Amino acid sequence: MDRRNKQSEMKQKLKIFGWLPVVLFFALQSCKSTKTIAEGEASPGLSAKQVIKRHYRNAPEFKTIVGRMKVDYDNGDMSQGVNLSFRMEKDKAIWLAATMNMAKVYITPERVSFYNKLDNTYFDGDFSYLSSVLGTELDFEKVQNLLLGGAIYDLNGSAYTSRVVANSYELKPTESMALLKVLFRVEPANFRMAGQMLSDPAKGRMLRIEYKSYQLVDKEVFPDEIGISVQEGSRETNIDIRYRNVEFNRDLSFPYSVPKGYKELTLEDAR
Questions:
Q1: Is pLDDT at 211 greater than 90 in this prediction?
Q2: How far apart are CA 84 and CA 71, in angstroms?
Q3: Where are the beta strands (DSSP E) in 187-232?
Q4: Which terminus of the chain is more exposed, N or C, with fewer CB under 10 A?
């Protein structure tokens, strides 16, 4: 393999592992403590403020989460499926590990880090790379909300209009954001996110997040399956993530350290 092909492969791996913190999906597979939640009926009589209030009231309460997931990635040029172990400590840490610890991801409010034993490389930096991939500024709270079925942006920070579309509550800001166009859809059964759309017309970029179903885990409403699509010009990246064996509030550790001698990947490697 020549140098150009190696650099191209490195870029693809950075993109795949860089996406993992953002594209976690939960898919239930015959677990006794969980069940898929049936759809409700959206009421045109609810105001935007009422919908938003119920959305935050129904957020899952937990200290930790542990489970497994399958992540499928396809950007048109390559596709790859990864099985992962997943752990989260609310507001503090998100941790992912591939089979045999061949790759790990560790995210805190300050850092995004991962390593890959297949080619002895690692990445360690802030959220700027993930933000550039998604076309919107990200931080730990936004990533966490995305994974939990919550709105990426604080819905209490702006005024919204509400209408019923396809049996979901469609929320739009009454005033346009500086650069982005945003739209939120809230499902009527438990008022968690049904979908989120963020677009940057100036850059020709659009992010779509679809929460395909929800499950009940220990009386808490949690995403069951999520689909994420990012379009930039004519290029589209699709990620499908499914969770299984989700549990709340176990005592967890988050072992992570980059092995010695690994080569550091930089943001330039991803461009």
A1: yes
A2: 8
A3: 193-200, 205-217, 220-232
A4: N
212 CB-contact burial (10 Å; exposed 0-12 / middle 13-18 / buried 19+): middle
Q: How far is CA 236 from the centre of its chain?
A: 17
For residue 198 the two structure tokens come to 């963020």
Nearest to 179 by CA among 206, 156, 152: 206
- Each residue's pLDDT tens digit, 68-79: 988 898 988 888
Amino acid 26: pLDDT: 28
* Rounded distance between C-alpha atoms, residue 89 and residue 91, angstroms: 6
Map residue 31 onto helix, strand or coil: coil
Contact 229, 89 (CB under 8 A): no
